[in-house]
């Protein structure tokens, strides 16, 4: 791991108002436990798309209780949903539009009051993350990647050391967990994100990361990443 003083960085007042954005997926609890041990009251933003597995919502509540999280749930605009996705099946016809309504717009609103936000991305998660910095500019905000230099073995060790709860679907073959209609289990040895939008081979990203110009991006390079 890098020798940067990450706890000191997280407490740096230059970061202004900071929040964590968490999907409460398979590895999320590690970031949450790590950051909350430094910043106990930090807001934890969860995008409730209305399409999550019930197991994810139960796991979110379990983790929030266990860690005493300051959980804040963002939801899609109901009038927009009524207009654009009245039957709740837009994901099948136009998943990019569905992600925009259910993830991108709510995230924009949720992080608006903050100057910086924390992501759990790591360099080992793919070639396009190989040079992931600890700090990066994200439009007008700063994005902090405190686990950028962690190895997969570091994550496993952290789970064990702190006896953290596992997402219940992980044991059923879901190493990457998003919305239920767009997530399938994967075979042993497959890419961790092979089960995300498996019915849409040209889409593998959820679109919650901002580009340098402050706009939300869905680049081909980032499609293997997501939250
Ligand atoms: S992951 Fe699927 S269901 Fe969830 S917002 Fe995106 S397209 Fe819609």
Give a written overview of the molecule:
By secondary structure, the protein is of the alpha/beta class. It has a single domain (16-226), classed as 3-Layer(aba) Sandwich (Rossmann fold), CATH 3.40.50.620. The protein has seven helices and six strands. It has helices at residues 6-10, 28-36, 54-67, 78-84, 90-93, 95-111, 152-162, and strands at 18-21, 43-47, 70-74, 116-118, 135-138, 141-144. It has a six-stranded mixed beta sheet with strand order 3-2-1-4-6-5. The chain is globular, with a radius of gyration of 17 Å. The model is unreliable at 209-227 (pLDDT under 50).
Q: How much of the sequence is in beta strands?
A: 5-15%
End-to-end distance: 21 Å
CATH first level: which class?
A: Alpha Beta
**Strand order in the largest sheet:** 3-2-1-4-6-5
Radius of gyration: 17 Å
- SSE string, helix = H, strand = E? HEHEHEHHHEEEH
Biggest β-sheet description: 6 strands, mixed
Number of strands: 6
User: What are the distinct ligands in this entry?
Assistant: iron/sulfur cluster
**CATH topology title:** Rossmann fold
Q: In the CATH hierarchy, what is the superfamily?
A: HUPs
CATH architecture: 3-Layer(aba) Sandwich
Q: What are the segments in which pLDDT stays under 50 over at least 5 consecutive residues? A: 209-227
GO biological process, one term: hydrogen sulfide biosynthetic process
Function: Catalyzes the formation of sulfite from adenosine 5'-phosphosulfate (APS) using thioredoxin as an electron donor.
GO molecular function: 4 iron, 4 sulfur cluster binding; adenylyl-sulfate reductase (thioredoxin) activity; metal ion binding; phosphoadenylyl-sulfate reductase (thioredoxin) activity
Pfam family, one: PAPS_reduct
């Amino acid at each position: 791991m890098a020798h940067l003083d990450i706890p000191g960085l997280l407490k740096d007042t230059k970061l202004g108002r900071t929040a964590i954005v968490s999907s409460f997926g398979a590895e999320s609890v590690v970031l949450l436990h790590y950051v909350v041990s430094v910043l106990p009251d930090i807001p934890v933003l969860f995008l409730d798309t209305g399409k999550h597995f019930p197991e994810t919502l139960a796991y979110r509540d379990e983790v929030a209780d266990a860690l005493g999280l300051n959980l804040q749930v963002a939801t899609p605009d109901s009038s927009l949903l009524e207009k654009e996705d009245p039957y709740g099946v837009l994901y099948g016809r136009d998943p990019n539009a569905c992600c925009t309504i259910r993830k991108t717009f709510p995230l924009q609103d949720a992080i608006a009051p903050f100057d910086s936000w924390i992501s759990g991305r790591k360099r080992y998660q793919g070639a396009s993350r190989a040079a992931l910095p600890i700090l990066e500019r994200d439009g007008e905000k700063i994005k902090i990647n405190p686990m950028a230099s962690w190895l997969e073995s570091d994550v496993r060790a952290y789970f064990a050391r702190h006896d953290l709860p596992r997402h219940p679907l992980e044991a059923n073959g879901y190493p990457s967990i998003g919305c239920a209609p767009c997530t399938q289990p994967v075979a042993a040895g497959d890419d961790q994100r092979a089960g995300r939008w498996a019915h849409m081979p040209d889409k593998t990203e959820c679109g919650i990361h901002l580009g340098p110009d402050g706009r939300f991006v869905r680049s081909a390079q980032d499609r293997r990443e997501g939250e």
